[in-house]
Write a structure and sequence with these properties.
The longest helix is centred in the N-terminal third of the chain and has 14 residues, at 65-78. Among the domains are: 1-43; 176-249, Roll (Endonuclease I-creI). The protein is an alpha+beta fold. Helix 8 crosses helix 9 (210-223). A 4-stranded antiparallel beta sheet has the order 1-2-4-3. Strands 5-6-8-7 form a 4-stranded antiparallel beta sheet. It has helices spanning 4-15, 20-27, 31-37, 65-78, 100-113, 137-140, 158-166, 168-179, 210-223, 240-249; strands at 79-85, 88-96, 119-124, 127-134, 180-191, 194-206, 228-231, 234-237.
């Protein structure tokens, strides 16, 4: 958790005209955290569990839909929900130690979605499991079910699709941060009789579920990113303009 002074310094930069993205890169604080502080700067407490917006008589969206869209992408890639005891479930998202910024962003998003429940990290070999206990994770992620995701049907509920349509880049970021990467390819070209090396960046997204691949490519279409299916499990984004779009809104893991 960030202290109040840190939160105020970040919001001061926003007030000076800096974007959330630039403040995030400058301070190392996730965009999800900065966005949440613009409406509530005081640190969250743990004195009670927040009510579930999906269980109300008139169901509503999660408190921070953008954070939810990002967390949904992470869940579909590297997340799972398991039953603990007495009606309590825990959401666990596995993040590699190589990407500490991703681990922080995951924890921030999980906390924003369930502000009354404590998020904690469990160290494993080469990775951390970002985890939070709640009775309501199946309400937030109705894709939960027995077995592996690629062995069962994965489809978004209408309320989830509405959030993804409103916050497509957050959803794409979550998917890339879980099962995607940004790499630099290279090739050689003959220029004026001399062979020169040429490098170019591209994004890959890999998943065994055809349904999840479809959710990814449909959302790419929505934001105007060109893509192609490299093979049954891989989606590639390589066109210069599309890579530039991805760099502006997603960027490499960090």
């Amino acid at each position: 958790m960030y202290d109040l002074d840190t939160r105020k310094r970040a919001l001061d930069l926003i007030a000076q005209g800096f974007s959330q993205n630039s403040v995030s890169k400058r301070t190392g604080i996730s965009r999800a955290a900065i966005r949440s502080w613009q409406t509530r700067i005081e640190p969250l407490g743990w004195n009670r569990a927040a009510a579930c917006p999906r269980c109300d008589g008139l169901p509503s969206d999660p408190e921070d839909p953008a954070a939810y869209a990002y967390l949904l992408g992470l869940y579909l890639g590297d997340g799972c929900i398991s039953y603990a005891r007495r009606g309590v479930y825990f959401l666990r998202i596995t993040c590699a130690d190589a990407w500490p910024g991703l681990i922080d962003a995951c924890a921030e998003a999980m906390q924003l979605v369930r502000p009354g429940n404590k998020v904690f990290r469990v160290q494993r070999q080469g990775c951390q499991n970002v985890t939070c206990h709640s009775k309501h994770w199946p309400c937030f992620f109705p894709q939960h079910g027995p077995g592996k995701k690629h062995d069962r049907k994965i489809a978004l509920e209408p309320w989830q699709q509405k959030i993804v349509d409103t916050h497509p880049w957050e959803f794409i970021r979550g998917l890339i941060h879980s099962d995607g990467c940004r790499i630099t390819n290279w090739t050689t070209r003959l220029v004026a009789g001399e062979r020169k090396r040429y490098e170019y960046p591209r994004y890959f997204f890999t998943n065994l579920s055809a349904d999840i691949l479809g959710l990814f490519t449909t959302t790419l279409d929505h934001v105007g990113v060109d893509w192609r299916q490299a093979n049954r499990q891989n989606i590639s984004v390589a066109r210069r303009a599309s890579v530039a779009l991805m760099d502006a809104h997603v960027g490499p893991k960090h």
